[in-house]
Amino acid sequence: MAKQKTLREEFTKGIIKENPVLRLVLGTCPTLATTTSMESAIGMGISAAIVLVCSNIVISALRKVIPQKVRIPCYIVVIAAFVTIVQMLVKAFVPSLDEQLGVYLPLIVVNCIILGRAEAFAGKNSVVASAVDGLGMGIGFTVALIVISAVRELFGAGSLLGHALLPFPAMTIFVLAPGGFFVFGLVMACANKLAEMGGGKKAELGGCKACPMADTCQKLAKGDACEKEGKETVES
Amino acid sequence: MKNSKVKEIVVPAVSLFLICAAVTALLALTNQVTAPKISQLAVETENRTKNEVLADAKSFSDAKSASLDGSEYTYYEGLDGSGKIIGYVFSTSAKGYGGDIDVMVGIDSNGVIKGVSILSISETAGLGMNAKNDSFLNQYNGKSGELSVIKNGTPAEDEIQALTGATITSKAMTNAVNIAQNLYTQVGGENDG
Amino acid sequence: MKIFFSILLTAILTNNYILSKFLGICPFLGVSKKLNTAVGMSAAVIFVMMLASAVTYPLNTFLENHDLGYLQTIVFILVIAALVQLVEIVLKKYIPALYASLGIYLPLITTNCAVLGVTILNIDSGYSFAHAMINSLGAGLGFMVAMVMFAGVRSRLESCQVPKFLQGLPITLIAASLTSLSFLGFTGLVENMFA
Question: Of B40, B154, B158, C76, which one is least surrounded by beta carbons within 10 A?
């Protein structure tokens, strides 16, 4: 057991050092899909952050009650509950956001940041620490989305938060799918550069230890290990 | 032995079940609170949109339904101050690129389109979503008769300039408007005389 | 018949789940280094997508008939998770050959947003059951096409000299961007084929 971190560290790590999108490379689907405009990026960031904080608190509170064997289904149920609640609230109070996020709103359920934090943190730590961790990660997620969406909206639609800014015609490609991958790649490269200057490591998919599927994922990523892997499992 | 079996199977199953039950109760509660709000919101949007697409009307009749090609559509009669019908608002839909596009079309008693507005749309951001822009929607105003979509050139009287890179969306929108016009000839014709 | 092809081709080419809807990016980036893993993963995804759609579609009808539409998300994700587990057990026990090739990918699929995505989108798009199944097949095949193509791109990328600044994930994402760009060329294809 490593020594206890202060709450402050738990909070700030999610924003910079362990930024879920740019450092841990989690939640790439919503990152790419909802950054077409800053408005929807902020909406997605806040919705996911609310779900993250709430599910972290509940899972942490229940961590002694939930049996080890069924913990993943339990986490999924708790997360799905909060996602549905957020979905209903958004539908009732911010219908324009519901229209923008569409299917990606219910898909917060499978956002691996949330299940990842439940598994890696909330299931093992106190309620307060988990809440702070969730808040930090949620803010980190939102910040990353805002950065990417600002670039995409500025160049793709010539505006920021809906206010027209660019004097020349916008390049629609930035708000289309290829632009999403492209801007994400460049922002990731910048984040790597910054991390390098700060003495940190590059972001890698292999670094997704926070993801509950990381084990399988990494085994597969290694490629050559995978054929053996398959046979072994059958024999056992 | 028996005890360990209880621990291994029953306890996890029961706790998972309890969590599910608690969650369902919580969701039912939230639904109770938000469902009326959501449906109220839908009604409000509809009312606002009705006024947008047929601004001349002072009030609207209750929802009526008409059928066309086997599908049921809702429409409203737009009334002036004295209760005379001055136009209709049709609620129609057509399949776009990312699902159904629901629109409301206002048509006056001469059969001229007064306004088109989108109730729900989920097209590609930056392309099909531009259908929401006034510059596209206003093309329909003042037109009448079967409309079609063109991609290049100057649109003629019965043509709509397609959105760049979003022909499917443009066609879907135009289909929805054409449905409304067909509905108009069906329900409006008899009141014309 | 026309509509079946139109739905199928739309899901594979113009509305590719990975490259234009951004669903299933994690496996797309994580499991696409080698061609054989890419194919194995995609086969498992096609299988689970079809199965999940076949099970969730009637369930949704049931939920809506009982005014329980708000339970959709939670029911769908639980059913998919349980289904994946069940398939894993059944395959392991009865069809070990298939398990050897698909089994290891199955746990990855539970939290794959493409699977949950396709089941929800089937409902949202108002498809009939047959159309929903075709759409799921198309989504899965589209997943496979994108994975296989991208595996090819990545194997070329490995022998390239990449600026240090872009090495690793950034260049992978930019390669994905170009792959996605090539799929943008299909826009309008389906519509003009069946217009």
Answer: B154
